[in-house]
Amino acid sequence: MEHYDLSREELQGMLTQLEQALINHQQWYAAMMRSVTCKLPSDLCDLSPEAHQHCGFGQWYYSEATEKLRDYPGFIALGEVHKLMHQLAAKLLIDSQAGTLINSSDYDNFSNALERMRLEISALEHELENLLYNHDSLTGAITRFGILPAFREQQALIKRGVQSCCIVMMDLDNFKAINDNRGHLAGDRVLKASVRYMIEHLRPYDKIFRYGGEEFLLLMQHIELAACYDMVERLREGLASMSINLGEEKPIHITASFGVVLLDPDVPVEISIDRADKAMYSAKAAGRNCVRLEDSATQNASAQ
């Protein structure tokens, strides 16, 4: 599930579906436990090997859930534990109807599977809410409200010697001209395509934040300054070579300027962000479409 492919309406719809499926699951659980406790006849569907497909939750999972959830790891894990829970529930129902004393380990296994399922549901719900409320609706980048918490968390890891971390300020070159000459809809498409390219070519644990307008902030974990420079240089080259189709006769190309610094654990994160910003402006001053390290910005400032 790629968050930049999902609209706010789609995310809200997924959450609504999940909430209803959870209600259906709770209703099934209450009825199942009533049958076990009171030794009432079981629903034959609950004794079937395909019980996980017949319950209300299963009907949503296998038929009604949006296709964009299908390949998401959390969704797949939820299906696996849901199926296991039904297999264990069937054992309890069979023993109850037969008048057999339910084995404590069978009950514990069912309870553990039930709890795992609830955790998977909660995790999936949290992920969808995070995408809905904490990501820029146009580009899919994380909103700037997430910058300080994420950076301060990384600072703590750096202080403990767990990792080094770099931050990168990225600004699309001559973006105002696109808005002025081609319109804001074209500008929106350029923003979305540019961030999509970055997300697809960053490492899974790197993060991109929309800092403002056409300016973005990258959090690059587990990397030293020189290696980060090389990675950002490859990203810059790839972005510059990308064609963006605006529905016109000829696609357009966009470039970006980048400033790269180490995240300093001993100063407020705002200072490190400011240093990255100055390095990025050094790249602008050097002719745009290039990458500059903090040292380059410092040297340029000293020379002026």
Q: How does the SSE layout of this entry go?
A:
Layout: H1 8-38, H2 51-54, H3 56-64, H4 73-97, H5 104-134, H6 147-159, E1 165-172, H7 175-182, H8 184-201, E2 207-212, E3 215-221, H9 225-241, E4 256-262, H10 269-285, E5 291-293, H11 294-303
Parallel strand pairs: 4-5
Antiparallel strand pairs: 1-3, 1-4, 2-3
Helix pairs in contact: 1-3, 1-4, 1-5, 4-5, 7-8, 10-11
Describe the fold and architecture.
This protein has 304 residues and is an alpha+beta fold. It has two domains: 3-134, Aspartate receptor, ligand-binding domain (Four Helix Bundle (Hemerythrin (Met), subunit A)); 144-303, Alpha-Beta Plaits, CATH 3.30.70.270. It is 60% helix and 10% strand. The protein has eleven helices and five strands. It has helices spanning 8-38, 51-54, 56-64, 73-97, 104-134, 147-159, 175-182, 184-201, 225-241, 269-285, 294-303, and strands spanning 165-172, 207-212, 215-221, 256-262, 291-293. The protein has a five-stranded mixed sheet with strand order 2-3-1-4-5, sandwiched between helices. Strand 4, helix 10 and strand 5 (291-293) form a beta-alpha-beta unit. Helix 1 runs antiparallel to helix 3, helix 1 (8-38) runs parallel beside helix 4 (73-97) and helix 4 packs antiparallel against helix 5. It is elongated and about 85 Å long.
Instruction: Categorize the overall geometry.
Output: elongated
Radius of gyration equals 26 Å
Kindly report the name of the CATH homologous superfamily of the largest domain. Answer: Reverse transcriptase/Diguanylate cyclase domain
What's the number of structural domains?
A: 2
